[in-house]
Amino acid sequence: MERPLAPDRVELLTPDAVRAHAADGLAALLVDAVDGGASVGFPAPLDAAGAASWWLRAAGEAEEGVREVWAALDGAGRPVGAVTLVRAGAANGRHRGEIARLLVHRSARGRGLGRRLLAAAEAHAAATGLTLLVLDTQTDSPAERLYRGAGWTAAGTIPDYAADPAGVLRATTLYYKRLGRGLSGGSEARPRP
Which residues contact 102 (CB under 8 A, 6 or more apart)? Predict the structure, then answer.
């Protein structure tokens, strides 16, 4: 990937925009993450068709209001980063969401895109009534530094939780971040949009 023509921008994608980017930019982003050793749910090698298929399912979930997708787009409008927010489906968990698949292409790292994507998802979550976010990441991965720096709290580590792309079982650390008051103490979460 070439350097961007203009500053990178972070956008909340519509389901149609996710579909439009699925076969090229978003698929390439996911393949790059797996090729780079990121433990994001896929064994290596991940082909472009498999990655595009995952993004097409994510677009369907976005249409249903279950998942939201942000992309960092370079000056040419190509995705160089992405993050998703998955809303809890259980009636007693509608105050929380999960940050999933925070990805930045290896060629675009060092520009603050991971932090900007995470901040966009957090701000949107808070603005739409979520008061608690959770995520998991491979223990001792570079992502842990990002999450801690953004104010996330480690809740614990589970050994041998998930296989990395090479198939090696790795520990996973669970994180959470409070965005506001929860359901205890008489407070109610705002309704989902």
Answer: 82, 83, 114, 117, 118, 135, 143, 146
Helix (H, G, I), strand (E, B) or coil at 185: helix
**What is the rounded CA–CA span in Å between residue 65 and residue 53?**
19
Q: Tokens for 86, please give them.
A: 């998955």
pTM: 0.89
**Cα-to-chain-centroid distance, residue 101:** 3
Q: At 153, list the tokens.
A: 């709290």
**pLDDT tens digits for 134-177?**
999 999 999 999 999 999 999 999 999 999 999 999 999 999 99
Spatial contact of 113 and 125, defined as CB atoms under 8 Å apart: no
Per residue in 12-68, pLDDT (tens digit) is 999 999 999 999 899 999 999 999 999 999 999 999 999 999 999 999 999 999 999
